[in-house]
Write a structure and sequence with these properties.
Blueprint lengths: L2 H16 L3 H15 L2 H13 L16 H13 L1 H10 L3 H4 L15 H24 L10 H18 L5 H15 L1
Length: 186
């Protein structure tokens, strides 16, 4: 079996899964989009991060909604800045009104609530396994067929652990992932 095909299957499973947490992900995505849309806002956000003593040196990442791995990277970075987002809400007068504007479509979801952040933290922990497996399956300069079985077992194990813990925000999605993995790799 070609390993890039395995990476494609993981991508399909994960893309479907993102639809389950669309509210929490959208709230964080909209907050990141607002901050990244202006150099002045980004500077103000960086000051908030400094005030919050956040030691992460990277910048906020805006995802491509159709690419689950970019959503994972966005959430992973945004979580590190949660305190800065809270401070930014107090510092920027236009932040909260941004979420109530209607720009020809439905009202924007956000700003992120504590529940959105908790959902994102749980989801990122889970996505980390899939992200790592996809990277291993996507390698083109080395043989990956010897790791295939181990990585699929790791995904199955992660699904079982998360299901036993009863992660409410992801339970429906976990069951869907399990079903799809069983369909592909039974």
């Amino acid at each position: 079996m070609h390993m890039r095909y395995c990476a494609h299957i993981v991508n399909l499973i994960m893309s479907d899964g993102l639809k389950e947490l669309v509210e929490s992900i959208s709230a964080i995505r909209n907050a990141v989009r607002y901050i990244r849309s202006s150099p002045a806002r980004l500077r103000k956000f960086k000051l908030c991060a400094q005030k919050a003593k956040i030691e992460y040196n990277g910048l906020l990442v805006l995802d491509v909604p159709t690419k689950w791995n970019s959503t994972y990277l966005m959430l992973n970075v945004a979580i590190k800045f949660q305190q800065a987002f809270d401070m930014f809400e107090e510092e920027d007068d236009k932040y909260l009104p941004f979420f109530h504007e209607e720009d020809g479509g439905p009202k924007k979801v956000g700003p992120p609530t504590s529940i959105d952040w908790e959902n994102a933290k749980v989801f990122v922990k889970f996505l980390q396994t899939f992200y790592d497996v996809t990277l291993k399956f996507s390698v083109t300069l080395s043989v990956t067929s010897n790791i295939y079985y181990h990585e699929i077992c790791e995904i199955q194990s992660q699904l079982l652990r998360c299901g036993l813990v009863g992660i409410c925000c992801c339970l429906k999605w976990l069951l869907g992932c399990k079903k799809k993995i069983d369909n592909y790799w039974g």
